[in-house]
Design goal:
Layout (H helix, E strand, L loop, with lengths): L18 E8 L2 E7 L11 E5 L4 E7 L2 E6 L1 E2 L2 E2 L3 E4 L5 E4 L4 E6 L4 E7 L7 E5 L2 H11 L15
Antiparallel strand pairs: 1-2, 2-11, 3-12, 4-9, 4-11, 5-8, 5-10, 6-7
């Protein structure tokens, strides 16, 4: 829902629909909301991406989100690291870094990136969700609730 206001003074945007929603474009940049949806749940993740022309900034607004990042190697991806986002902190994923994200119920994340980021200047690589579980377990010391999924992702 957009509020009525003099657009020359301030632009106010919001979106509560599930998924990724670009809302503001300015000076070559795009600002979007990423709202929780099943597509971004751990058992659904099958790819990591990297943007070859832009960093990508994540800012947790509410809920929970985990970023998974890995260095780009000639043979594919390096070791995956899980980073739990905290409200009030910005996370800048550098251009060329393999990454994906997993959202929790009610999550809302602001994403800021170059407006021309697209499939034309980004790449995808397959990843097994079990590798993401393993990364999360390494970061959390094997905490409860992070059991590895079976082959069918359950």
């Amino acid at each position: 829902m957009e509020e009525t206001m003099n657009q020359e003074l301030i632009e106010i945007k919001s979106c509560g629909e599930p998924g990724y929603h670009p809302l503001v474009y300015f000076g070559g940049w795009r600002v979007a909301f990423l709202n929780d949806t099943a597509r971004f749940h751990l058992e659904q993740i099958r790819e990591m991406q990297r943007h070859n022309t832009s960093d990508e900034v994540f800012l947790l607004i509410q809920g929970s989100c985990t970023l998974y990042v890995a260095a780009a190697l000639e043979s594919g991806i390096g070791e995956i690291t899980a980073v739990e986002l905290e409200p009030g902190r910005m996370y800048n994923v550098r251009k060329g870094v393999w990454h994906t994200h997993v959202t929790g119920p009610g999550a809302k994340i602001a994403i800021i990136e170059d407006a021309d980021v697209s499939p034309d200047n980004s790449e995808l690589i397959s990843v097994d969700p079990r590798a993401l579980y393993e990364a999360q377990n390494r970061e959390n010391g094997g905490g409860a609730g992070n059991a590895l999924p079976t082959q069918n992702g359950e």
